[in-house]
Please model this.
Amino acid sequence: MLESSIMSTINFRKTVFVKAAATIKQCPAEGLPEIVLCGRSNVGKSSLVNALANNSKLARTSSTPGKTRQVVYFEVDKSLLIADLPGYGYAKVSREKSEAFSSLCDDYFSSGRKISLALILLDIRREPSDKDVLMIDYLNHTDIPYFIVFTKCDKMSRSQCLTRQRQLACLFKFSPDARVYAVSSDKKLGITDLADGIGEFIESLS
Ligand SMILES: Nc1nc2c(ncn2[C@@H]2O[C@H](COP(=O)(O)OP(=O)(O)O)[C@@H](O)[C@H]2O)c(=O)[nH]1
Ligand SMILES: [Mg+2]
Model:
């Protein structure tokens, strides 16, 4: 997890909250390239926004899974929009609520909004859920580019992390185009690398 020295010109420290949307209709107008964060509830989506922005007060994080019921938008350096999607498939919320969250996540992908890049967050320690598998399978059948981001890597040694990454890559059948990152938002590991990767990818679109 060496931090790369090649910097993209997008400054993630200039990240601001835009709005929270409870329905697709409330989502902001399209314009800037948009990246979406997806993954099960509690995987570390909001913590990743904060780590990228180096601002722990930006996105609300929670140790109680299933809290976010909205798509939360952030604008980075007037250059891109980050959509923090509701986490999918957390068993402890009621079935009705759980379906509402995942349907907002599903709707998002079928809404016709232009998604420039999806970040699929996977907890390095956990076994993939059916929803994770479905999400990746779905993306493999679309032309939406995605990066895989393994989270909470501070919970393991570096060598355990590499072994897990290899095991999970076999289980998931990631697209050969998908870049794979391993990060810790807590310990700020791999964050600069990921920011550079996102910046470079977004800049290559224009
Ligand atoms: N150890 C560790 N815990 C983390 C990390 N990222 C997030 N967490 C914890 O995981 C829980 C859920 O994080 P959150 O960002 O709210 O997840 P979200 O539901 O996907 O947005 C919180 O208790 C965080 O403190 C990490 O890199 N390392
Ligand atoms: Mg969150």
In short: The beta strands are 15-21, 34-38, 71-76, 80-84, 117-123, 146-151, 179-182. The longest helix spans residues 95-110. The helical segments are 45-53, 95-110, 130-140, 158-172, 191-205.
